[in-house]
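Dear support,

I submitted the protein below through the web form. The confirmation email said the job was done, but the results page showed an empty box. After a refresh the structure appeared. I'm attaching both so you can tell me whether what I see now is the final result or a partial one.
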Amino acid sequence: MKNTFILLVLFISFSASSQITGKVVDNKNNPLSFVSIYLDGTITGTTSNNDGEYELSLIKPGNYTVVFQFLGFKTVKKAVKITSFPFQLNTKLTEEQITLNEVYIDTKENPANRIIRNVIANKKKNESKIQKFTAAFYSRGLYKIKNAPKKILGQELGDLGGGLDSTRSGIIYLSETISKISHQKPNNFKEHIVASKVSGSDNGVSFNRAQDVNFNLYENTVKIGNEIISPISNYAFGYYDYKLVGSFYDKNGQLINKIEILPKRKNDRVFNGFLYVVEDDWALYGTQISVTGTQVNLPMVDVLRFKQSFNKSVKNNAWVVISQTIDFKIGLFGININGRFSSAYSNYNFNPTFDENTFGKEILSFEKEATKKDSVYWKSLRPVPLTNEEVTDYVVKDSIKVIRKSKKYLDSIDAKNNKLSWTFPLSGYSYSNSYEKWDFNINSPIADLNFNTVQGWNSTIGMSYFKTLNETGKWMNVGANFNYGFSDKKLRPTAFFGYKWNNISRPVLRFSGGITTKQFNGANPISPFWNTINSVYFERNYLKIYEKTFANVSFSREITNGFRFNGSLEFADRKPLVNTTNYSAKNIANREYTSNDPQNSANFSPSFTSHKIWTLNLGTTINFGAKYLSYPDRKFTVYNNSYPSIYVGYRKTFGADSSQLNADYIFTQLRQDFSLGNLGNTKYRIKAGFFLEQKNIAFMDYAHFNGNKLAISPSGGTTNYFNLLDYYAYSTNDKFAEFHGEHNFKGFILGKIPLINLLNFHVVAGAKGLFTGDRKPYTEASIGLDNIGFGKWRFLRVDYVISKGGINQKQQGFVFSLSLFD
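What the results page shows now:
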C-alpha cells in the first residue's frame, strides 16, 4: 500500500510537470487573459489566466505545433521540439488587421445583412452537426470589490471573508469547478462534478454549473433573467441593425467577418457588440457582446459582457465553443463589485455511446470527495493556472477558515454580537452559540404591533430556539408566542415544535397548539399591517377573525422527485369574536366600522355558534417533467416550465358537535409560468373544488377566494387574488372554479414606440374569472404597466381593472403593486 501511494504521488508530480508553460502578452507587453492555447489539429487545450499565464499539459516529449487564438488578435502557430518538461513558451500577439473588402461596399444590399441572413438560414445545418457529445468542463468564478463601505443601512458589512486589504478592496469570492458533461439534443444534459473548491469555504461546494453558462446564440432567445433576443434569431431583423466592420483570415485560411450588432431600440431585450462569422460555413467564430442589468431584469447589475471563442472540429466539420467569459459589474448601496465567470471546454467526444440510462432526472451530481481534493490534485487537473492574487487568496482564506472555525474565535464573535442593544424594542434580541450551532431569539413587540376592532391594539412577543443538528439539513426548532389584545384584555399563547431530517427529501414534522385568532379565510388575504393602516386612518376594518384553541400535527416530505406530500390533523375549539373598540385616529363623516361578521356587516352579535371539530388535510404537489441537482448535502428540484404544476387536496372535517358541520372537500390547483420568447411571459393559475355534500357547515370551512379592497395589492403574486372582489362575497359551500391569467409583453409593445421606449415600462394584460354553483359569475379584465421606477429601482406596477359581478355588479379602479411586499 505504501509503495502504491509513493508511485501515485510520483505519477501526479510527473503529470503536473509534463507541461508547456508561458505567458501571452500584446505588443505593449500587457497580459492577455483567456487566450485559447491548443495543439494544432485538435480542439483540446487550455486558456491563459488574468495575468496571461498558461499551462498546456502533454503526455510525452516530441514535435508539436502550438496554436494561440484570441478574438481581435492574429492567431499564432508555433512549432516546437520538446525534449524535456516543463517547457517555456512565451508568446506575443498582435492585433488583427481587419480590412473592408470593396466588393462588399459595392453590393446593393447591406453586406452585413447578407452575412447574417446566411447565418440564420444555416443554423439548423450547423446545429445538426453536433447532435451529442461529452466534454471536460472547467469554470472559475471571481468577485472583486473596491472601497467597500463599512456599513450598509446601519448594518456592519464586516471583512467579507477576510479578503480585503487596507482600502477595503480585494477578492470576496473565488471558486473553481471541474466536471464532465454529457449532452444530447434537444434537451438531455448531464453534469458530473469531479472537483469543486471555494476559497475560505469549509464545504467547498461551488455553484459554477456548466448548464448555467450554456448560452447558445443559435437559439432564438437566450435565458439570462429575461429572454434576451439572439442577434441571429429567426426574427433578429426586427430588433437589430448590422454593420460589416471588416474581415480577416484565420489560421486555416478561412475568411472571418466581423459584424457589429446595433439594437434598433435601446431598451429592448437585446445585445450590443460584435459577432465573428465564418464565411461559407456561416457559423460563429466568436462573440463579444454585452447586455445591461435592466435588460436582464437584474437592476443591481450595470452590465454583463460575454465573450465566446469557437474552434473547428475537423471530424464533423463543426464549430464548437472552447472558451467563454462572463464579466459583470454590480453597483448598489455604495458597493462596487467586478466579477468574472470563465469557462473552458476540452476533450470533446462527438461520438459517445449513450443508452437509456445515460440521462435521467438527475442532471447534476458530485463525485465522492469532490469537495475534498488537495492542492496537488488541483495542480494536476486545473487547465487554467491561478494568478498570484488568486493563489494568495486561497492561502490567506484557508488559514482564516481554520481560525474562524475555532471555538475561541466563534465565542469571541458571539460575545460581541450577543450584547443587548438599546434598540431591543425595535430590533428584538438574538443570542447565538455559533460553535454549538444554536440560536435563541426574542422578537420585537413593537415591530409586531397591530390594530383590529376585536382586540384593539395588540402585540406579540415570541421566543424561539433553533438548533442545527448536522451539516446535511437536520435541525429542530421550538418556540412560543404570546399575543395580547389591549381592548379585549386577553392573552393568547401558542407554542410550536419543528423537526427536519435532511435536505434531500426534506421531511418536516411540526407540532403546534394554543389559543390564537384566525382569519375566516385561512389563506390570510388581509395583512395585519394594511388592516391597521386602513382601520386607524380610514375606518375600514376589513380583517374578520375568530378565536381558535387548537392542537395540530403536520408532516410533509418529497415522495419522489417532483412529488411532495403534505398532511395535517387538528383538533380545535372555535369561538366567535365581536368588536370591542371603535378607536380611530380620525373620525370620517358618514363612515363607521363594520361588524366582525364576514357574512353580515351589520350583525354585531356573535356570527356563529361555538363548536369543537377535527380537521384532516391531505395533499400532494405534482411537478411534471421535473429534474434535480444532487449536491453533497442537499437536492434541488429543477422545474420544467413546459408543464403545469398541479396540487390536489382533500379536507375532511369530522367529530363536530353537530353532524351538519362535518364535511368532505376536494380541491385542485393548476399553475404555470412560461416564456413566449420575444412576445413576453405568460402565467396562469386555475383552481377548482367541490363539497361531496352541500351542508350548513361552519363559515371558516367554506371555500374562500382571495379578494382585495385596497389600492395596494396583496402579496403572494398577481395570479393569487382578485383585484376588486369583496373578501367574502363569493365564499361558498358548493362547487366552484376560478381562473387567473396574465401576459407581460415585456418590451414587445412599448419598446417599439420612440421616446416611450426610453421609459422601459412593460405592458401587462390580465383576465380573471370566478364561477360558483350558487352565484352568477364574477369577472375582471385589466391592463397595466409594470417595471415602473427609475434607474435600478423599478418596483412599481399599476393596473386599471374593470370587474363585473359581485355586490356592486360593475366596478373599476386602479390597483398598485409593490414588488417590495411580494
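Response: this is the final, complete result; the empty box was a page-load delay. The longest helix spans residues 388-404.
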